[in-house]
């Protein structure tokens, strides 16, 4: 396999987190600070930028850390792939598009990992996000995750999936989509030996969790996004189906000629084909985010009064630039993440000692534990408003009066 044209950003350790305000260094303090951050009447000091701009509401930016409690692996947490396996790198877009052998490897590993992702469900943090939306504290969610948990947990809250979703496939030639569950059935039929191996892994419980340590103990390597590495396994015999739309109606290529789509006697894609390649409906490394998705994310930032980052180290530029955009708009920034975050010191450099959470917070706590407690506090308070009226908040066992 060719050497990658790019390196994965920030695979090394990030600086330790800074805690803001200082009392947020305990779960109780973080609970207090996050509640104050979400309920600040109008901490935003910039100009109203659009008719949809609401300076009292937050936009959320979530990463892999919010889904760890659902049993999914992350990238840069204490048990993350880049933390425990420094040599790991995911497949690149150009490799997937051009290399038949690379696609075999990808789909074989995804075939094994799909069962864990498919049966995983939203956790307490996702349900808390739903509650925050219902109570009017947030107006949209931007997620780097590809697990679709936000859409499952709160379908009525506007959600922008920055990097796509794994529960569907898209043809790189005709752009038609196919459900991932249907594709999984085809992979099973085309690869009976791998199917038997998968059934054995399920029977032994080797795939019950994506926890890297548990997987290693059973001879597997666990990577994010449903990728399961079987050391020393040969992927060259693995087969995958062709796009059914291209097979029935071969599309025209860029040069105007009709594409050739061939399959073997079992229906597996043939390397003699010039089209019909399905890929996961996610943005792979080296692939650009669609312009309409980028625009929607930028507009979501502009329509909010503050931004709260949950479970992301902001190591990817697509996420970091959105927080940078919020900073440039003079929006209060909140970060709830276990471990360091890329450039976090610059996001809080101008906060004065009087900040008690209204203008910014940085908490080093688990989202699935902290967010439900914050929701509990907010359910006992008055609903947010835009008129600057006094509100009484029940924070833990204390009462805080804000204006």
Domains counted in the coordinates: how many? 2
Q: Which second-level CATH architecture of the largest domain applies?
A: 3-Layer(aba) Sandwich
Which geometry do the CA atoms define? elongated
| Radius of gyration computed on alpha carbons | 23 Å
Number of helices: 14
What name does CATH use for the topology of the largest domain?
Answer: Rossmann fold
Please name the fourth-level CATH homologous superfamily of the largest domain: TPP-binding domain
Q: How many beta strands in the DSSP annotation?
A: 13
Strand residues, percent:
15-25%
Average predicted local confidence, pLDDT:
84
Strand order of the largest sheet: 3-2-1-9-10-11
CATH class of the largest domain: Alpha Beta
The separation of the N and C termini measures 61 Å
Q: Into which percent range does the helicity of residues fall?
A: 25-40%
What is the SS-derived class? alpha/beta
Identify low-pLDDT runs. 1-8, 382-403
The string of secondary-structure elements, in order, is: HEHHHHEHEEEHHHEEHEHEHEHEHEE
Largest sheet: 6 strands, parallel
């Amino acid at each position: 396999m060719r050497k990658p044209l790019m390196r994965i950003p920030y695979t090394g350790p990030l600086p330790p987190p800074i805690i803001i305000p200082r009392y947020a260094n305990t779960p109780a303090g973080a609970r207090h600070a996050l509640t104050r951050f979400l309920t600040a009447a109008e901490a935003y000091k910039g100009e109203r930028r659009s008719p949809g701009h609401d300076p009292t509401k937050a936009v959320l930016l979530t990463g892999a850390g919010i889904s760890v409690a659902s049993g999914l692996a992350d990238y840069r947490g204490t048990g993350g792939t880049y933390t425990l396996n420094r040599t790991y790198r995911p497949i690149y877009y150009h490799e997937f598009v051009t290399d038949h052998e690379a696609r075999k490897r990808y789909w074989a590993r995804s075939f094994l990992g799909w069962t864990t992702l498919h049966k995983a469900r939203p956790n307490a943090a996702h349900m808390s996000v739903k509650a925050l939306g219902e109570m009017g504290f947030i107006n949209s969610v931007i997620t780097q995750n590809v697990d679709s948990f936000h859409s499952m947990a709160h379908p009525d809250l506007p959600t922008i999936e920055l990097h796509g979703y794994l529960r569907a496939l898209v043809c790189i030639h005709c752009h038609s989509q196919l459900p991932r569950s249907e594709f999984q059935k085809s992979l099973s039929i085309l690869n009976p030996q791998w199917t038997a191996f998968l059934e054995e892994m399920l029977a032994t419980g080797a795939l019950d969790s994506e926890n890297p340590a548990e997987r290693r103990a059973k001879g597997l390597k666990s990577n994010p996004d449903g990728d399961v590495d079987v050391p020393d396994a040969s992927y060259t015999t693995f087969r995958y189906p062709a796009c059914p739309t291209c097979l029935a109606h071969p599309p025209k290529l860029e040069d105007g000629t009709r594409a050739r789509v061939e399959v073997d006697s079992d229906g597996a894609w043939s390397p003699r084909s010039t089209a019909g390649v399905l890929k996961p409906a996610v943005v792979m490394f080296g692939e650009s985010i669609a312009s309409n998705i980028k625009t929607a994310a930028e507009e979501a930032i502009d329509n909010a009064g503050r931004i709260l980052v949950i479970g992301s180290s902001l190591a990817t530029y697509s996420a970091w630039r959105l927080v940078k955009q919020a900073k440039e708009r003079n929006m209060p920034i909140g970060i709830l993440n276990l471990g360091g975050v890329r450039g976090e010191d610059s996001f809080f450099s101008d906060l004065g000692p009087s900040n008690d959470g209204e203008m910014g917070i940085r908490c080093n706590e688990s989202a699935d534990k902290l967010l439900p407690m914050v929701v509990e506090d907010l359910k006992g308070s008055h609903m947010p408003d835009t008129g600057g009226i006094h509100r009484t908040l029940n924070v833990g066992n204390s009462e805080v009066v804000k204006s």
